[in-house]
From TrEMBL:
Protein origin, superkingdom: Bacteria
Similarity comment: Belongs to the TrpF family.
Catalytic activity: N-(5-phospho-beta-D-ribosyl)anthranilate = 1-(2-carboxyphenylamino)-1-deoxy-D-ribulose 5-phosphate
Entry protein name: N-(5'-phosphoribosyl)anthranilate isomerase
Species this protein is from: Neoroseomonas marina
Start and end residues of each N-(5'phosphoribosyl) anthranilate isomerase (PRAI) domain: 5-208
Length: 212
């Protein structure tokens, strides 16, 4: 199976077109206003409309209310809702049922014990994303360019498709995939030339390295 690649935090045409052109499988729009990568639903709709079909449009939320999700879905259909906060399995299940949209739960990994919660989500989400824990007191729960120990994932049976995230770059992604035995990867900071500004050449290099 080819490795799946998600390019997260797309907020301009350069990033969107580069991700599409290079064969991204998923594209992430951040609906978390404190993030430098945040977009409005209208901006995401306009970007998404640049290309019909293609990558799964993923909406990233952090402990969202139903109203926040509904406001986004009123503007553009999402193929996947990414929950990157402290959402419980019950909350993830409720969101999935109410919006009839697949859900990906992001989980922070620092030690093997952090993976103990996976079974609790297994029946109520469609995918997992494993990311580093955010720095204590930091403003963002993700998108921090922080890697975690990739070997913690090796040999694990994860009951749903999953993405490895955290501090990935064009230079380390191939090794990360091998070490973690990851079926997919997600990147934000590693394909930016400045915080929140995607770089087309880095996106192309990342996808080539991941899929190569
Ligand atoms: O990217 C953000 O700004 C962000 C904000 C709030 C919650 C999650 C966020 N990003 C989540 C992602 O899916 C990132 O791609 C993932 O954390 C990896 O980020 P990076 O280490 O910067 O590649």
């Amino acid at each position: 199976m080819p490795v799946e690649v998600k390019i997260c935090g797309i907020r301009d045409a350069e990033g969107f077109d580069a991700a599409i052109g290079a064969g991204a499988d998923l594209i992430g729009f951040v609906f978390f206003p404190p993030s430098p990568r945040a977009v409005t639903p209208g901006q995401a709709r306009a970007l998404s409309a640049r290309h019909a079909g293609g990558p799964i449009r993923t909406g990233l939320f952090v402990d969202p209310t139903d109203d926040q999700i509904a406001a986004v879905l009123a503007e553009l259909p999402l193929g996947l809702i990414q929950l990157h906060g402290t959402e419980t399995p019950e909350r993830a299940a409720a969101i999935r049922a109410r919006f009839a949209t697949p859900v990906m739960k992001a989980l922070g990994v620092g030690t093997a014990a952090d993976l103990d919660v996976v079974p609790a989500y297994a029946d109520v989400v469609d995918r997992f994303l494993f990311d580093a824990h955010p720095p204590p007191g930091g403003p963002l729960p993700g998108g921090n360019a922080q890697p975690f120990e990739w070997r913690l994932m090796a040999g694990r049976t994860i009951p749903k498709p999953w993405l490895l995230a955290g501090g990935l770059t064009p230079g380390n992604v191939a090794e990360a995939i091998r070490t973690a035995q990851a079926p997919g990867v997600d990147v934000s900071s590693g394909v930016e030339r400045a915080r929140g500004v995607k770089d087309a050449a880095l996106i192309r290099a990342f996808i080539t390295a991941a899929k190569g």
